[in-house]
Amino acid sequence: MSSSPLPSNTSRFGGCTLTGALSVTTSVRDSISIVHGPKGCSHHNFSLLHTIALENDALSIPSVHASGLLEGDIIFGGEAALERALAECASLRPKCIFVLSTCIAETIGDDVGAVCGMDWGVPVIAVPTAGFLGGVFQNGVLNALCALSDGTYPVPSDGTVNIIGEKNLEYEVEENYREVSRLLSALGLHVNLRFIHQISYDEIPVLGRASVNVLRDEDIAPVGDHLKARLDTPYVESFPVGLAGTIRFLELVADACGVSSHPAVQDERAVQEDLRADFSDLAGARIVLPSLGVSAIDRGVVGEVATALDMKITSDGSCVPLPLSPPIGTGGIRRMLHRWRRMIHA
After folding, report:
1. pLDDT of res. 303
2. Angle value at C-alpha 296, between 290 and 299, nearest 5 degrees
3. Which of 9, 93, 244, 308 could form a disulfide with 5 if both were Cys (CB 3.0 to 4.6 A apart)?
4. Looking at the predicted structure, is the pLDDT value of residue 199 above 60?
5. Do residues 242 and 306 both lie within one domain?
6. Element holding 166 (H helix, E strand)
């Protein structure tokens, strides 16, 4: 990720490191996440996660607790406050407790690792999330995924696939997962673990069983490398993007798992031909891309789709909407084209 993102992309990628980590840890259902810092850090993130869940029709309440650092803790050290928070949360007997440090806690030098290493009767995992000391939302995601994987070990592979680093806060997370699962099924493969999306803590140890890890996108590559070093699991670096990218995805996963991709590729080419036929009414349409926030990947996908459907990218046509992230697989392109059709024929 660029350390100097374009202004149009700053709001998308430059968020709080703590929020990124919480988007991962709060997706472990039987856990509690302690934010070691002032109550405001916890309240802000709880409200954000709860609101996004409601927007995605998920009636879940994130299990977030605050150590609640006060002025005296910031001056004299906040480790005692963290111990009190851990004792309270441990008494609730969760399967696991995650402790996420904040800018203040790490700036004043609290030894979070030492406090977490005490005997609390349940596993306690520390996740560094101090954005002031370097990092943005994505660094929080990476730190959390790596921390959660550190207690896993290699086991004999069984020809399954792990999904790594799903964007838990994106609107189409389930649609994207279903599309990837559809493509894996075409290869005769199934998902071993969604690491991490709405799983229990007891599921995490099976992480090392899969034959290949499929990363959500290239930004998760550090986690892919971490798991390759720890579990010797190869990885495919991204969900499928674009028509040709979907075919390539099938080939890459098949090669990693030692299965033939030919039948699945032939079937998917037929699915893409059906897509072209279903949206043939868009042939000749003139479309305009949004003026801001269009990445090189977005432009590549739009160009490929426009060529396939004989559409024209101009400066005086219908302005078509793009998803926040590039559309995943043929299914994602189909959803995008439905939105385009409404705009073009409005």
Report:
1. 95
2. 50
3. 9
4. yes
5. no
6. none
Same-domain status, 323 and 215? no
- Which of the given ranges, 35-44, 60-69, 102-111, 174-183, has the highest pLDDT on average? 174-183
Per the structure, the complete domain to which residue 188 belongs is given by 161-261
Please write down the HEC assignment for all residues of 254-312.
Answer: HHHHCCCCHHHHHHHHHHHHHHHHHCHHHCCCEEECCCCCCCHHHHHHHHHHHHHCCCE
pLDDT of residue 222: 97
Decide which of 261, 281, 306 is a domain's last residue: 261
Residue 101 β-bridge partners: 36
Q: Which residue has the tokens 């490398």?
A: 225
Joined together, the tokens standing for residue 102 give 């904040």
Q: 3-state class of 164 per DSSP?
A: strand
pLDDT at 54: 56
Count of domains forming the chain? 3
Q: Are residues 144 and 186 in the same domain?
A: no
Say which amino acid occupies 177. Answer: Y
Q: Are residues 168 and 292 in the same domain?
A: no
> pLDDT digits over 254-280, tens only?
999 999 999 999 999 999 999 999 999
Of 34-38, 116-120, 203-207, least confident by mean pLDDT is 34-38
295 in the same domain as 257: no
User: Quick one: what percent of the chain has pLDDT higher than 90?
Assistant: 66
Please check whether residue 37 is in contact with residue 13, taking contact to mean a CB–CB distance below 8 angstroms: no
Distance between CA atoms of residues 145 and 21, nearest Å: 8
Residue 266 lies in a domain: no
> What pLDDT score was predicted for residue 12?
47
CB atoms within 10 A of CB 312: 12
Q: Tell me the sheet residues that pair with 96.
A: 31
Q: Are residues 12 and 111 in the same domain?
A: yes
Burial class for 270, CB neighbours closer than 10 Å (0-12, 13-18, 19+):
exposed
pLDDT in tens, 301-337: 999 999 999 999 998 989 998 888 899 999 999 999 9
Half-sphere exposure (Cβ direction) of 158: Cα atoms closer than 13 Å? 11
